[in-house]
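Open question from group meeting: does this chain pack into something compact, or does most of it stay loose? Before anyone orders reagents, we agreed to write out a predicted structure and look at it together. Recording both the input and the output here so the notebook holds the full record.
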Amino acid sequence: MEQVSQEKFKLWRLALATIHVDGKVTAEEEEWFNTSISKLEINKILNFSTQQIEDLRESLHTLANKFIEEFRSIKKPSDRSILLHIIKIACYTDDEFSPEERELYRELEIACHENIDIEAVKRQTYAMEIESYHEDEVYKVNNPNSVFERVFMSILKLLNPGDYKFPT
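Structure tokens returned:
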């Protein structure tokens, strides 16, 4: 099995390094860090090498010097988004989202959206939503033996004719 890519390794190293953002490492953050490392160590799908695990362990004691720059160097927007989510989880492990953590998160959120045409994404998402509206899907009876479900779906269709959107 192939070892985890350098890009994914960088994601995890940055995610784990977030415990240093507010300038202190609490017991809760250290526990989260060690639990995360243990999970990565046994995860056969990600397949971290022994050296990569050791490098990740070292990040408990070292700060990410150029965090924003390293974050921006992550190529895939989806990877940036996942990292942003992990960072928020890590920042809340000590039950305090400090001003330093808030500021970093805000900067990373801006960096996450750089070079992304949000309006184009909205248009694409809306088009996909419209394409998904089909009478057979929206009012599909999952259990053909259920008289209740057949009647209920028929009533919903009567109440919502023509647009085939899921009723709200």
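Observations to bring back to the group:
Residues 69 and 111 are 9 Å apart (CA to CA).
The radius of gyration is 23 Å.
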